[in-house]
Design a protein that fits this description.
Layout (H helix, E strand, L loop, with lengths): L6 H16 L15 H11 L15 H7 L1 H15 L4 H16 L1 H8 L1
Length: 116
């Protein structure tokens, strides 16, 4: 049963949910992103930020549910292949670093604490 006395609390809850879902956190906010060689930064950013491999929404804003939940395994493979093919020196190691950055990006709770 709805009570008008609880309306301000309800509105506050709705406003905080809208703010939280509208917040954009990009992959370059992950601290380890800056340590990636450019051969890994470019494909990682292109795949995640621009959602170039299957999660695009036309507005070029990140979609956590697609990238990190529904298609996480697919994105791991896409990032691994793209980075390894572009990095001539230590492609397996650099691809592993890029996957670690992607995993950190998908760990919203930790990432939000880092960028706040």
């Amino acid at each position: 049963m709805f009570s008008f006395a609880s309306l301000p609390l309800y509105l506050l809850l709705v406003a905080s949910i809208i703010f939280a879902t509208a917040q954009q956190i990009f992959i370059d906010h992950v601290p380890a992103y800056a340590e990636l060689p450019s051969c890994a930064e470019i494909p990682s950013s292109f795949i995640v930020r621009d959602m170039a491999s299957g999660c695009g929404d036309g507005g070029k804003t990140t979609s956590y549910s697609c990238l990190c939940t529904a298609s996480s395994s697919k994105m791991d493979g896409v990032i691994n292949t793209a980075v390894a093919s572009r990095c001539a020196t230590g492609p397996v190691t650099v691809a592993s670093q890029a996957l670690d950055v992607f995993a950190s990006y998908c760990d919203l709770e930790t990432l939000a604490e880092t960028v706040s």
